[in-house]
Specification:
Elements (H helix, E strand, L loop, with lengths): L1 H5 L6 E4 L5 H14 L2 E5 L14 H15 E2 L5 E7 L2 E8 L7 E2 L3 H5 L1 E4 L2 E4 L2 H11 L19 H12 L4 H6 L3 E4 L2 E4 L1 H7 L12 E6 L7 E7 L3 H14 L3 E5 L3 E5 L3 H14 L9 E5 L3 E7 L8 H6 L7 H9 L9 H10 L7 E5 L2 E7 L10 H13 L1 E3 H8 L3 H14 L2 E4 L9 E4 L4 E7 L2 E7 L4 E4 L3 E4 H14 L9 H16 L2 E5 L1
């Protein structure tokens, strides 16, 4: 419960002070059911997260159950529970995501269908209702026939170039099996996916499906130094996007024995973000395009269409894939632009975890999805000793109060609160509380943290790796977790530390290991 109260209202969470506004609660139930499911907590103030509680919870539970059953069609049965929390009674309504569309009986489908966009419940327009109906029929937008088109409107040369290495010579019969075309009245017509992927004039039917690339002079949108509108078939458009990004970003260098070029942004992360935007964009939305915006410190890749129905940000980042465009997704997978469904965002996170750079940002903005990739120049801030000490403590004890942390640091409560605010602002810890004044507030380690275990021979090393990717040894050198693992692997492959003690690199690695063992961050465990 504390974890939910710590969160802000979102696509899947809403707070209500009471049941006086039943119509608002019913609309939220409809929106959650149509979008991705969700939880409504009644008895909590929306802004301060203050626990108010409700009177007569049994009566309110029965009233809500009856109103929901009577007001919404098709019938939906949420799970309604009474929870006693800090001597207050709360009502918890858990709404599942079910194939609909669901709407208010009194208003009808056109004026009574709601969906969740960000933290608000909004009336669905005709396009969204159509999407919900297609979901019910297990059909995606790119599988539908494209009106007023013929097979002459798709570029057969592009189809052969891209698909014949995989499927051999492509025939019209294969067009149908690949859903590039759909048979109606004994005649083949291109699908929306076929036009988007293979038409040289796709903007004729989808004028908003062009890809807008722009490069700004600094961190703001004030001065444009380069821009390009990409209209080529989607199956090859990614190459033009990569070329635009390459010519508008820097290439650094790391020189040791040989020169190694270092791009301003990890290439794999750019690739995954661009492909993700093309595959998951909602091409049925009018007036919105895929946008590639390059700033001096970041790249923002934005596509129309938020998370697909039934999807949440947690599921998306954990690798669960719900494909919006099946035709586009399948063919991108066949030509190896996608390796495995659902792994794109996880790969981006993994790439950034390996470098000491500000982690990527994933956002659902209104009816859009944005990935922000930060430049390798934006190195993560080095942690102070007292920050590292607290993070280690929180790893061991999960959460601590302000008083406990002040005692641990040996400081006054005022100093502790000041330090905790700095750590909250930097994102290294989370505060779990019901309000800003909650006397029971506790602090926990940020969930991005990973624990890496390495077990070989007779010693097991456990390395705690925070979201910044590396660890400092006495403020002198920095060795990334992967480097340590690689070093240990090489050592245990054929040598002992003692045998290689004269090697300067190994000396530094051993010094670092000894320092981390002494601090408790790296723990040798004898078998």
């Amino acid at each position: 419960m504390l974890e939910l109260l710590h969160q802000n209202e979102s696509r899947t969470l809403e707070f209500k002070e009471n049941t006086q506004s039943l119509s608002s609660i019913i609309k939220t139930v409809v929106a959650f059911a149509n979008t991705a499911g969700g939880v409504i907590i009644i008895g909590v103030s929306n802004h301060e997260k203050r626990i108010i509680g409700i009177q007569n919870p049994l009566g309110e539970e029965e009233r809500l159950a009856n109103v929901i059953a009577d007001a919404i069609t098709p019938l939906i049965i949420p799970d309604i529970q009474i929870l006693n929390f800090r001597e207050k009674e709360l009502l918890i309504i858990r709404v599942p995501h079910v194939i609909g569309p669901f709407y208010l009986k009194s208003s009808g489908m056109e004026r009574g269908t709601y969906v969740r966009i960000g933290s608000t419940s909004r009336l669905a327009d005709s396009g969204i209702i159509l999407s919900l109906q297609m979901l019910a029929k297990n059909t995606s937008f790119d599988e539908l026939p494209c009106p007023q088109t013929t097979l002459a409107d798709i570029d057969h040369a592009t189809i052969q170039n891209m698909l014949s290495p995989i499927f051999g010579d492509i025939t019209e019969k294969q067009y149908e099996s690949l859903n590039i075309a759909l048979r109606q009245y004994d005649k083949l017509y291109p699908t929306n996916g076929g036009i988007l992927l293979f038409s040289q004039n796709r903007d004729k039917w989808f004028p908003d499906a062009t890809i807008a690339c722009v490069c700004f002079a600094d961190t703001t949108c004030e001065e444009i130094i380069d821009q390009q509108e990409i209209k080529s078939p989607l199956i090859i458009a990614h190459a033009e996007i990569f070329a635009f990004i390459k010519r508008n970003t820097k290439m650094g260098a790391k020189i040791q024995n040989i020169r190694e070029d270092i791009p301003q942004y990890p290439l794999q992360a750019i690739r995954e973000a661009v492909i993700n935007a093309i595959v998951h964009a909602d091409y049925s939305i009018k007036g919105s395009k895929i946008q590639i915006s390059i700033f001096s410190d970041r790249i923002e890749i934005t596509n129309p269409g938020g998370l697909t129905y039934g999807q949440t940000m947690d599921l998306a980042l954990s690798g669960v894939s719900l494909m919006r465009n099946r035709v586009i997704g399948r063919l991108f997978r066949e030509i190896k632009l996608i390796e495995r469904l659902g792994t794109g965002l996880k790969r981006i996170i993994s790439v950034y975890e390996k470098i000491n750079v500000k982690p990527p940002l994933f956002e659902e903005l209104n009816n859009h999805f944005r990935v922000t990739l930060y430049s390798v120049d934006t190195l993560a801030t080095n942690l102070e000793l007292w920050e590292r000490q607290l993070l280690e403590k929180l790893i061991q004890q999960n959460h601590l109060s302000t008083a406990e942390i002040a005692k641990f640091w040996g400081t006054t409560s005022r100093t502790a609160r000041s330090r905790l605010k700095k750590m909250l602002d930097s994102g290294t810890i989370n505060r779990v509380a019901t309000s800003m004044q909650d006397p029971y507030a506790v602090f926990e380690f940020r969930k991005l943290t990973k624990r890496i275990e390495y077990k070989k021979c007779d010693i097991s090393y456990t390395i705690y790796k925070d979201q910044y990717g590396g660890f400092s040894a006495g403020g002198c050198i920095t060795i990334h977790a992967e480097d340590v693992l690689d070093t240990l692997f090489e050592l245990e492959k054929s040598y002992t530390l003692a045998q290689l003690a004269e090697n300067e690199c190994i000396k530094k690695a051993k010094e670092w290991i000894d320092a981390q063992i002494h601090s408790g961050r790296l723990r040798p465990i004898k078998k």
